[in-house]
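Researcher: Watch the backbone:
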Amino acid sequence: MTPGPAGAVVLRRSIQVTCSASVGFYAFLYGLQQPAAALYALFTPIALGLLSTIPGTGRQQAWITLGTLPFGVVLVALGTALAGSTAAAVGGMLIVGFLLTFSVVAGPRTAGPAPGLQLLYILACFPPYAPQTLGARLTGVAVGVALLALCQVFVLSGPPATSFRILLADTLEAAAAAAADPTRVPAARLRELSEGMRLSQVPPGERPTGPGRRDRALAQTGAAARRIVDQLASQSTASMTPGAPPRTDRPSAALRERVARTCKEMSAALRAGEPPPAADALEKAIRRFQAERTPRAADPADPGADTGVLRRQAAVLTLAESTWVAVTALGVAVVGRGSAPLPPRELFWYADLPTTQLWARRIAGNATHRSVWFQNAVRVACGLALARLVAGTLDLAHGFWVLLAVLTLGRTTVGATWRAVRQAMVGNLVGAVAAGALLIALGRHLDAYAVLLVPGMLIAFALGPRLGIAYAQGLFTLVVSLAFAQITPTTWRLSEARIVDVVTGSVIGLLCGLLAWPAGARREVRRTMASLLRSCGTLVPATVEALLASTAPSPPATLPTLHHLRLAEAAYAQFRSEPPAAWEGTQADWHGVLIVAYHTVLGAQRLPCFEAPLPDVPPDAGAWARRTAAELTADADRIAAHFTTVERHAPGRRPPGPPLPEHHLALPTLVDLEVWLTDIDRQLTRIEDSVRLKT
């Protein structure tokens, strides 16, 4: 059977790790008679190549691997220094375990090697306390890293991943074609491109998820590009509906042409690696569009004030605003600080902040017990520290296996941890029996172990990840036995020691999983989604008041909502990664909550920025806007309360309020506001319906 893409990746990785680990191991053990260096040259590629998930392919992985060398050297030196004292080793394990696990806040490129670096520290911080071997250990680490990087480049490096810039350029190129002529790109193709721009669909090494300015700006550009193609898909579908009114009018046609040109120029700049076009031309086109549509709509008796035309104009204006966000953010990503004036400032709050401050904000924003990243870091750190304390106090032989079991078998829910532990127990038992029989049969024939190690590693590393935890643990037990039998005199009791250590580590992992957030993201996703909805609810009336103010409107503060949005996204991502359970079917439409948050935040930022002020708004229109905003806030609060209440019942839906008086729809700003409020109401209703169906 031909392996699929995932199987090909596993096979490629297993060959790379086997080659790099075996070359370093044999060279040090048999060529230089340096067993300490041989041990670290063996485990370094295993740690960084198998236990870690380094994103990218070929040269990308090699550069990330080489970048871990300074950290690996520091951790091995620290572990070697602390190994003489159980208390010091436990304290170091607590700190190192937390920092490495919490590094996920920096994105996959930084967090990918963290488990492997964790293993290097674990290996070094166990007795015997042998500071005289530090040089050999560091040499083994350096050689192991270098060999793995070379194999990642020259041994089955794999096809290069499509960069995020190319994905973005393809999406914007299709958007330009669709904006110029909706019939050129089918709506299905536009939606397909939108799905492809989701970060979960982007190769991990290409995801702009770091805390720096460039990644933040590229992520914002990608989100804006998704909105552009989604809006074009919706407008294309509406224009092709039988009996639909004409697609556009003259001001809308001119603005769509400018949108198409801007998207085409952005796509070309991304492909050529050049700065994108300035946002000034598009912003002037937006202002001109507003000036042209306002006089036509000022007189309700004017046929140009037809509400259908104004609503279609509102859709075109929203499309242009999304394009303006995309081109401005892309300028920040390419040019950097001070690239252009950026009103509203809060929409691009990160643009002029130093990198250190951006990192500090990302870390501080997740340094809360409501962050699933913080919870996971605390759980792992406590489990590793407790395992080190138990192994050191009981003086367990090969005690690092206790910590390795905690590190590899721990999951975000106690149920998933128990399932992993059960399978690992079976695999280790079978593997230990097989390894014991092999050690008894071969005795001290080192040449036999040397011959069997390479095919053993290749089989274990290639088949273990594909066949499951039980096979992976059993095969790894055989590999460990073959390696240690060549370093020191070994008997069948090595297998016995591994079983005892793995069982001990499994019990500690289960205990930590039971005491520290045992339900994983189940409860946290409810809390964070509820907080996000409440925060969005406060933005709606604030935005309405900004538009109804007698002075020039200014956007309300959206940074608190963006903070809640990031916590909710992290909780939702972990929730989706956890195994399905019986309670999962009772959850609400969490993705819908994220969508309504995006829509609310974007409207709160763009409407006061681009819309004309309404100082002389008719009293009944102002009362309608304030009443609708208050109702939406109440809806959001009611749904949020359902998420966090112990006794959960389907929230009661309010009767729909009266629409905006028809004669006020001639005011374009009110039409745009009505479209925004109506979309929020529709999305909240969809979330409410999902709760009713699943309660």
Notes: Confidence is low (pLDDT under 50) at residues 241-246, 295-304, 582-586. The radius of gyration is 30 Å. Residues 307-335 form the longest helix (29 residues). DSSP finds 26 helices and no strands in the chain.
